[in-house]
Design goal:
Blueprint: E1 6-10, H1 17-25, E2 29-33, H2 36-42, E3 49-53, H3 63-73, E4 81-85, H4 90-97, E5 103-106, H5 114-124, H6 128-142, H7 152-160, H8 169-174, H9 182-200
Parallel strand pairs: 1-2, 1-3, 3-4, 4-5
């Protein structure tokens, strides 16, 4: 029997959940988290895609903000995240967040969950390095630093890794789109995380 790809669903409401779970379970091995505490307990790097509702009860943050916080804290950039909502204008969220998330689905127009399922399938098939590159570009673009020039110190560190002709953060992000070994991927992301924290402060 072929093992299904793993999906993590953050959904606190039971309204219509059976239809959504039935739909997603056609293709995925679904793990559900009902709140922030369950999310923190269950999230890991083994999921092929993460889905979150926007509105989460008893939280001062949206579902995608909770997951984005964990993405930073756990340094998970390779998993595509799909955002869906029936109560909030999903187009406004997409305009605000851009490519930080892989897909945006209006739950109000997708009662059966078919659109959500197809969006999740499409996102789960994205190559991990493409997902990572897209997240990093969106993260630095949001900070207004995507085209920021790299310092000589950073360029020197990259040369030690055998990476040349990199002048900006965007150039560095683009390197993730290449076929690279895990060790090089980790080294590149270590540099990106250092830069991100520097600009975030």
């Amino acid at each position: 029997m072929i093992e299904k790809p793993k999906l993590l669903l953050l959904e606190d409401s039971d309204k219509g959940i059976d239809l959504i779970l039935d739909s997603l379970s056609e293709y995925f091995d679904v793990t559900r988290a009902k709140d922030q505490f369950q999310l923190e307990e269950k999230i890991n790097a083994e999921f092929q895609v993460i889905v979150t509702d926007v509105s989460i009860n008893n939280s001062d943050k949206t579902g995608f903000q909770l997951i984005d916080d964990l993405r930073v804290n756990m340094r998970i950039t390779r998993i595509p995240i799909v955002v869906y909502s029936a109560n909030v204008n999903i187009e406004d969220i997409e305009k605000e967040q851009g490519k930080l998330f892989c897909g945006y689905v209006d739950k109000g127009n997708d009662v059966s969950g078919d659109v959500l399922l197809q969006t999740c399938i499409d996102c789960s098939k994205e190559r991990q390095n493409v997902v990572s590159m897209t997240v990093w570009e969106a993260s630095f673009a949001k900070l207004g630093k995507l085209n920021h020039p790299l310092t000589e110190d950073v360029i020197g560190k990259l040369k030690i890794l055998g990476i040349f002709d990199i002048k900006t953060i965007k150039d560095l992000c683009t390197q993730l789109n290449n076929n690279i070994e895990d060790s090089e991927w980790k080294s590149l992301e270590d540099v990106l995380w250092t830069l991100w924290y520097e600009f975030k402060e």
